[in-house]
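Hey, I'm writing a tutorial for new members on how sequence and structure tokens pair up, and I'd like a real worked example in the thread rather than a made-up one. If someone can provide the structure for the chain below, I'll link this post from the tutorial.
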Amino acid sequence: MTIWLQLLLLGVGAGAVYALFAVGLVITWQGAGVINFAHGAIAMFGGFVYRTAAVDGDLLLPMVGLPHRVSLGDSVAPWIAVALAVIVCALIGAIVDIVVFARLHHAPQLARIVASVGLLLVLQGIVFVHFGSGTVSAPANLPVGAIDLGVSTLIMPKDRMWIAAITVAVALMMVAVSRFTRWGLVTRAAESNRDAAQLLGYSPVAIARSNWVLAGAVAGLVGALAAPITSLNTTNFILFVVPGLACALLARFRSYSLAAVAGLCLGMFESVAPRIAGQSWWPEQLPASALQKGLPLLLIIAAVLRAGDVLPERGSRTGARHLVAPAPRSPVTLLAVAVLAAVGLFVFEDALRLALIVTIITAVLLVSLVMLTGWLGQLSLAPAVAAGAAGFATARLMESGLGFPFAQLAGGVAAAALGLVIGLPSLRVRGPQLAIVTMATGVLLEEALFRNAAVTGASGARLVPQPTLFGLDLAASRGEDFNRWQFGLTALIVTIGVCTGAYLIRTGSFGRTCLAVRSNERAAAAAGINVVTTKVVMFALSSFFVGIGGAMLAHLRGAISVVSFSVFVSLVLVAFAYLGGITSISGAILGACLAPGGLAFGAIEHLGGGDPGKNAVLIGGVGLIAVVLLAPHGVDGRIPRRARGATSSPTQ
């Protein structure tokens, strides 16, 4: 029993971090109506601001290409460095609202979600440019050592105790401010009806901006306090947003106290999870991390089952502009693009050919997102998980003797089955809540599958056999012969098949059914459409296509691991699908050209513009935000349609 109590105490620190994340997310939702997937990225930047000030004596600013450090002399005291992190992140919150979210009041919910993903990529890209992807440590800013609790051998780390105390203080402060101040009352009024608050003389813009500033300050605080405990890199804090979202959703994005309590309990459970997984009855094939990361999903499911849609549209936001789902271009256009791609496979040199092959395969992944999000209106943040499942399944099946293309098709079926699991919550929720659920599901499956030695092998990476067909060698690389045109041509044929299938779906009765469901589920059901069947079938179809793309990507890389198909990869895929135009097949192809490693980056490098790889994430994030603001239908949506029809309906 003593060991269990000790583990619970050790989990208080992580629980406090989750609680602060949840409180910050509730602030952003109540004040601005935004589910901020970039909250973890803001906290990450706050952690680097703290470390830079405490170690180097410099003030870190969120800039690239301009001076991004202001010398403060020698290294500053830890409490001053924490204050600087809070101030910088509060300013980031204000800038983000002024530049981005204040302009998206009438945009669809999808646009606001994608904008937050773009902000995440921008901040991650800035940190990557300046610090790389490695992990760095930060000096302590809270008392260290242990407190003897006087009960058997129980001890409590001082820094965990302090961060828990600060968390409780912040949560209580927010409860008091929300309930007993005019600002809190006005914020809650604006949450219910923005226009009514404006008629009473209150500025919704000022309310939203002040909440963004406060949420940014909380993110900076948690980033600075947690940096010495968790260390700093470009991914840790970003993934902390998943348990934070789980706790905020459990609190229905309204109760600061419930969100904080849920975070503390979650952290303590995660601390004892490895010991639970060490019991004799625990399946050896299931990693302990799956239990740790699975609880946020269970919390989300509990909240969803308890209340269904807990985040209704906010007041005047129901009149949001609609994304346009245009009629597909003529198949002749697709054929012409395919011919040009085929010519490029033979004409381009090795590096540019690789960029073309990456573009071809990425197009398959993005087409699946067009089908699911653009045509059905269901936003999934776990497409890479389905692609990864297909990649690992293909590798295992080919090792067992199943050849091309049957192993790849079987991998697609495995992805479709997984997609059904990921898509089940869509029968109950939609919009931002579905995005949260699928993101948490993706993290759970990533831990349960891609970190499982039974799936990936003892090394954590699995070699993928190369395809052959009727004695023809279709391998992506053989010896020193890299990026072979034979594999590129095979991938192109697969992509043509997927695009043709998507075209037939969009122009057929099922495509029209999906658009009707996207526009208004209740009206579609009243018209005799089976909404449940429509969602299930489309989740399966889109996951099958993304699985085919995942299998081809596995062949191109030759070896795959958890890094190849992480949740972050899913965010990048969604970002570039939206960037190209998430409602059209041509937009998916354009997004694939712009994606990291695609033709656009390959062409820049080929033309002497240097290697853009280090800036790929930053460029993608900036481009994504610019598209959301300037071309809400994607780059493809800015192209004149003259002879093309268009269907306007709301995307949730």
